[in-house]
Amino acid sequence: MGTKTQPQLAKDNERRIRANDKEFNSQFKYHNNYIKTSKYTLLTFLPFNLLEQFQRLANFYFLCLLVLQLIPAISSLTPVTTAIPLIGVLTLTAVKDAYDDIQRHLSDSQVNNRKSKTLRNGKLVEAKWSDVQVGDVIRLDNNQFVAADIMLLTTSEPSGLCFIETAELDGETNLKAKQCLMETTELGEQHDLLWSFNGEIICERPNNLLNKFEGTLIWRNQRFALDNDKILLRGCVLRNTQWCYGVVVFAGVDTKLMQNSGKTQFKSTGVDRLLNFIIIGIVLFLISICAFFALACAIWEGLIGQHFQLYLPWEHIIPQEMVASGATVIGLLVFFSYAIVLNTVVPISLYVSVEVIRFAQSFLINWDEEMYYARTQTYAKARTTTLNEELGQIQYIFSDKTGTLTQNIMTFNKCSINGRTYGDVYDLRTGELIEITEQTLFQTSNSSNCNSNSNSNCSSGGGGGGNKRSGSSSTAAVPPTILVHKAEVHEKKSAVLVTTDGGTQLAHSPEQLHGCIASERLSPTVSTVDNPLARKQVRYLSPSRSVSNEDDVDDPGGRTCTRSASGSGSASASASGSSGLGACFTRSGQRMRRQLSGGLSTSSGSSSDKALAPVDFSANPHHESDFRWYDRTLLDAVRSDEPHAHNFFRLLALCHTVMAETVDGRLEYQAQSPDEAALVSAARNFGFVFRTRTPNSITIEVMGRLEEYELLHILDFNNVRKRMSVILRRGNSVVLYCKGADNVIYDRLHGGQEDLKARTQDHLNKFAGEGLRTLVLAERRLTEQYYSDWRLRQQEAALSMDSREQKLNAMYEEVESDMQLLGVTAIEDKLQDGVPKSIANLQSAGIKIWVLTGDKQETAINIGYSCQLLTDELVDVFIVDGSSVEEVEKQLRQFKESIKIFDRFRPGGSEALNHYNSDSSMDPMGVAMTQTSAFMQDPNGSTIPQPPPAISVVTFSAECTDLFGDAEKSEDGRRTAPSVVVDESTGFALVVNGHSLVHCLSPELETKFLDIASQCKAVICCRVTPLQKALVVELIKRAKNAVTLAIGDGANDVSMIKAAHIGVGISGQEGLQAVLSSDYAIAQFCYLERLLLVHGRWSYYRMCKFLRYFFYKNFAFTLCHCWYSLFCGFSAQTVFDPMFISVYNLFYTSLPVLALGVFEQDVSDKHSLEYPRLYAPGLKSELFNIREFIYSVLHGAFTSLILFLIPYGVYKDGVSHNGYILSDHMTLGAVVATILIVDNTAQIALYTSYWTIVNHITIWGSLIWYFVLDYFYNYVIGGPYVGSLTQAMKDLTFWVTMLITVVMLMAPVLAYKFYLLDVHPSLSDKIRQRSLKKVHSRVSSDVRRTPSSRRGRRSVRSGYAFAHQEGFGRLITSGKIMHKMPQDFAFPLGLGTKKTQALHNNLGDGVTHKQTPSTGHNHNNISSKNNNNTNLRHNHNNQIHSSMADIRRDGQSSSDMNQGSASTDELSPRAPCQDLDTINL
Predict the structure, then answer these.
(1) What are the start-end ranges of the E strands in 231-320?
(2) CA–CA separation, 1192 vs 1137, rounded Å?
(3) Residue 818: its pLDDT value, please?
(4) 865 closest CA partner among 1269, 516, 1359, 1306
(5) pLDDT mean across residues, the chain
């Protein structure tokens, strides 16, 4: 054998493509761009489908039976009995498969027929996606999907930039920048140049690595390196880029998207797999029993049968000479005869019935109005009909995040400015947070019917519970009291009380709060509010003002409220009127009246509800109509020129990388991340409008006034820094604005802000507890002298040849220090409706939920808390982020130790039980241990040192697990100690990064990872590729043998959806790729709860009940032949009429069992959702398993024995009163068949829990149908059993025999059923009994958690999350992202020359003229040197365009520009573009 040459090896390992050269590329036979997911064509459908169907064991088994029945010597039944059902099953399955494949053909056609602009012979023509070939040059326009994997050639943006959205690939919606080679940007959109482009690309083979590409471009005798930044992948969407051109590198199945899609797998349910196993067992049982009967027949024929040949002659094929040989041959033939007679143990109708039931259940899912999404007019859709019952056995759910759990919409929800929080509205009567939504209602009610304008007796509800009170009458009606704003202030607590007439009061203690409104008969419960939300109260006035210095404010009614000078800030009312609360108000009262105006009203005789309207921003000409904010006080603070609010929003308007442009006269923003878009949008609506930017300036409009800032530096965001800063100059001041993670910013604040930091930290905890994404804002004022010195040192660091990154980071650390805290933003990554409730119920049902997302770690964790997948009650959240196998293994080992420590001390463990037993006085319902140090206490109170565990906080809770009743009571009525159980909400969670997941999935760490993950309440995998998602699903399927469900909405979820047992697609914003690959399609994640807990549980329950009854009735029917064989010499004679055997499963018993399988339900859908633990039996396969099957078989065998022996004993040697002989074979067969049908009817009536009109018709109709068909067959058609049943029914013996037999069969079943109900009732039994008694029990907290109880919690975790990427700051300051050349932008202050700097340095403090020229000189030298050495390519940027609208020109130029350029013509308004990259590295 020869060895491969070097060129052959290279050919195997690389891919060569030549642009615009079809002949060259065709020799390699690359795949075209045609996508095919269908399986059949018109010609191949019939043979391929039949071949596929006969690969199923059951179909092949019945085909063999059909062949046997065609042999007359061994068949006692006509072949029609098997042929018709088999053909029916094959036809039904073929029609279903054809329909599914037609849908795949349609989806393929839709994708392949998309239009793409392709260069052909120098002209741009429209071609189908399927016609695109490797090497073609194609054009993409803005918002267009990328047709194939292409190498970027040229774009409409400066420096060859373009922006893409990769939501289809990794789930991220933030824009990513791609840049083509500078050498190819000169091609522009000139088609002749693009057609003449003949570059040759040598690159890697097709693979599934989304973030890696290696290749080389050979063009004009030069070689250029290609990496992932030069490649646009299929599935991406071009954004914010007018057009771009590229060369197709990978097409069709070779694209990275298709490489990650995974292979379509044949899916079957757990019931199917169990059924296959059972059928194999039944076949073996059938073979063994046939062998026994064959042996028995041979013996009987040899000993007895040979003497009766005169009456029972042997067949002619049987040897007559030797008895032994003849008996053996007869036994062999009887073996096959019994195989045919007893085949009804597993009739073909079983598979027909299963398919029909699944088909009907699919329509019930499709027609469910509760899963209809009105906004998109989308119903749930079962795209497969074979997996319904698997929905009731799901153990693991793997969910995508973006578009699946979230709506992909960011909204500015709340904020904290200078220690005061905005955005909350509380109701004092209940002490609860009013949900801020468009449907929010202010509930205002009085305890008795009264008119607010009359002097009738009226009382209002107190805080915390809204309790109604009775007391002495009042001379004036009291308006309801609302607590509008509330938060925690350390040391001193205060509350603002507001009435509908505009009065407000500041109360700092419960006594003051109670005393000030004593005249209104406020309940004492208000002063000691039990609601934890109501304990957190706030000083309403701005903390920057002293309450004690407030002037007296006149009440409109003539009363005054004088502030106490005690320094406590308490308010005392002068009791000049009977209405104490109305007399106490502050200057904030007017603002509160505006906030409450229209929101509160009272009506005579009834309470009134009015929607809480959002704040009106229409006075701002740049406001956005879809922006919603409900706290009027923040807008009032901005309009009253409150300095802290202005600094807060000024930072939001300036510190970002957003681009602005004017489209159809409307200002629009293009943001790199949705977080930045939400923050800049919020500033815009509050009057701080970001207007435009240049590489060196930012212009904003503040309350109608233009402000222009010189942009000195952007200190860009990255995952290590977790913050972003801008340094700006305006006038004489230089300021640094910074936003970032709370822990990062807090470490860089100057001293003396402890009180402000503490209050803001409380707000951070509160926002984090609500699942909001938080950023902390801070500023630092820089002196001109300090900044000049820092800039010089920063330039030196930027030009350093060694450790440049570390030196630059040190410079950033220096300037981003000693900052002043401004506030906190809280953005809501809007979840889909009902996500927290759905996740809570699914977890309560015992399902483990894993989130697999391509998003960043912080974002994934934040959403985990927001949707309550993660909770503050968790013992610990493990984060696996090691970059090597050793690091990951070390982390996993530490987490394992933490779990061991928790297991050691948890309630129920040996330590906890000993402690509980040693201290009987301890309240078992209040077990709580907070372990924050290395010490614990024994029962005697002494301190015992313990080794510090790896768990920071451990919270235990013990609850009674009884669903309905209270704790168990002893005979004397005292409560006994309940069993100690760990609360479901405690436990661990695991967060794994994508690069660490690679090691976790390796064979050496796979077991450890699974061991820890299986003990965690939730698992989140972030930064994972589509293929990694599928690998995680496959790992759980293989290692845990668990039933999995994957749910997603984008193309990046397709591989995961295909890998899981059940794939659910959400028809969301990312297209329909996931839906087309899914088994079930829903419009919202919350519908998954109903899909599993209602339809899934019902389908599993119905299928299991159907199978149990089906096997019972068929064994009861078939085994009668076995008992009869003992009396017929094992001759394979049937006890029943052959026609009865043929139609037993088709006409007599099929419809009742089908109705059972389609309509049966143990509890209603409402109770199925209300009690998620009803789902638990499906998780353990309790309703149908080997044990249940054996029980059905034994029950059927017992029934067949009684069914045959009693009539046989009665009719053997029986004579009627007329003297007729009853002991004939046909009469016995007709009687046994009739009693069998009656017994089946009684049994299924007992089986049925939920009766519908269909059940009544099918059950009682089948009984009547039996007698009608029997009469028709025997009397009309002329069957052999004519008159047998008619004569038997005329005799009383028949009716007595039937009664005795049915009673004997039903009595044990009824007794066992009542025993289970009375002694071992299931949860569904309890619920049904409660429903029958009309007792509506409250759902226990250990059965269902509602998300409303989670709102307003404080959390000690960070709520930081920011979907931003590094690099956009450098693109802005370098001018690459702009459409105009950098030198076309005028500096706002005329900087750029020595004289300009000198002029403005004169305006600074402490800066000499001598320093400025040297600074400018050094700056220019450094820039020039850097340009010559490292930035040669930037000299090519003379054709750069701007992606941003020009500054608005309405007849006059910017005032700042005039100021900087009006003094002398020598001042240069331009900037050297070479300087920008160097300064802002």
Answers:
(1) 231-232, 237-239, 243-250
(2) 25
(3) 93
(4) 1359
(5) 73
Residues 569 and 494: beta-carbon distance below 8 Å:
yes
Task: Work out the burial of residue 202: count CB atoms within 10 Å of its CB; fewer than 13 is exposed, 13-18 middle, 19 or more buried.
Answer: middle
Q: Residue 33: what are its φ and ψ, rounded to 5°?
A: -90, 15
Give the tens place of pLDDT for each residue, 1265-1295: 999 988 888 888 777 778 788 888 888 888 9
Task: Give the max Cα distance, the chain.
Answer: 141
Q: Which residues, in sequence order, are bridge partners of residue 150?
A: 232, 248
CA distance 843 to 61: 42
State which amino acid sits at residue 929. Answer: M
Q: Collect all residues with Cβ–Cβ distance below 8 Å to 744 and sequence separation of at least 6.
A: 721, 722, 723
CA distances from 888 to 851, 877, 898, 989, 1006 (A): 20, 15, 15, 16, 11
- Alpha helices by DSSP H, 520-607: 532-535, 580-583, 588-596
At 418, list the tokens. Answer: 């200078």
**E strands along 741-819, which residues?**
773-782
Average pLDDT over residues 403-430: 83
In this structure, of 713-727, 746-760, 808-822, the range with the lowest mean pLDDT score is 713-727
Over residues 1324-1351, mean pLDDT: 55
Among 136, 254, 400, 1239, the one annotated catalytic? 400
| One-letter-per-residue 3-state SS of 997-1064 | HHHHCCHHHHHHHHHHHCCCCEEEEECCCHHHHHHHHHHHHHHHCCCEEEEECCHHHHHHHHHCCEEE
pLDDT tens for 342-370 read 888 877 778 778 888 988 999 999 999 99
**β-strand pairing of 481-482 with 495-499:** antiparallel
- Say which amino acid occupies 1115: F
- Per DSSP, what are the bridge partners of residue 358? none
Query: What pLDDT score does 322 carry?
Result: 62
Q: In angstroms, rounded to a whole number, what is the distance separating the alpha carbons of residues 656 and 690?
A: 10
As a whole number of angstroms, the distance between CA 1139 and CA 1144 comes to 8
Q: Nearest 5°: phi and psi at 855?
A: -75, 170
Give the span between the Cα atoms of 17 and 25, in whole angstroms: 6
Whether 872 is catalytic is no
CA nearest 1249: which of 1358, 1331, 1169?
1331
Which residue shows structure tokens 């062998």?
A: 291
Distances from the Cα of 162 to the Cα of 82, 141, 180, 185, angstroms: 66, 11, 8, 12
List the one residue out of 587, 569, 428 whose CA is nearest residue 497: 428
Using an 8 Å Cβ cutoff, are 645 and 638 in contact?
Answer: yes
- pLDDT 10s digits, 638-669: 999 999 999 999 999 999 988 888 888 888 88
Residue of 1387, 1411, 1406, 1398 whose CA lies nearest to 782? 1406
pLDDT digits (tens, 9 = 90+) for 531-576: 333 333 333 333 333 333 333 333 333 333 333 333 333 333 333 3
Residue 1089, burial from CB neighbour count under 10 angstroms (0-12, 13-18, 19+): buried
Q: In angstroms, rounded to a whole number, what is the distance separating the alpha carbons of residues 317 and 842?
A: 67
* Number of residues that make up the chain: 1481
Given a contact cutoff of 8 angstroms between Cβ atoms, the answer to whether 1183 and 1101 are in contact is yes
Three-class SS string for 1284-1347? HHHHHHCCHHHHHHHHHHHHHHHHHHHHHHHHHHHHCCCHHHHHHHHHHCCCCCCCCCCCCCCH
Is pLDDT above 80 for 273? yes
